[in-house]
Amino acid sequence: MDFRCSDGAVWRDALASYQTRVESLSLAKTDLVRLDDFYTKQLPLLLRQRNPTPYISKPELSTLMQWKLTRGKWRPRLMDFVSSLNEPQVQSASERAFQSLPDISKAITELTTLKGVGPATASAVLAAYAPEIAPFMSDEAMVAAIGSSKDYTLKQYLIFAEKLQTKAKELSMGGDLFTPSDVERALWSSSVGAKLQALPSQENPKASSKTNAKRKRQR
Question: Per the confidence metrics, is the pTM higher than 0.90?
Answer without folding.
Answer: no
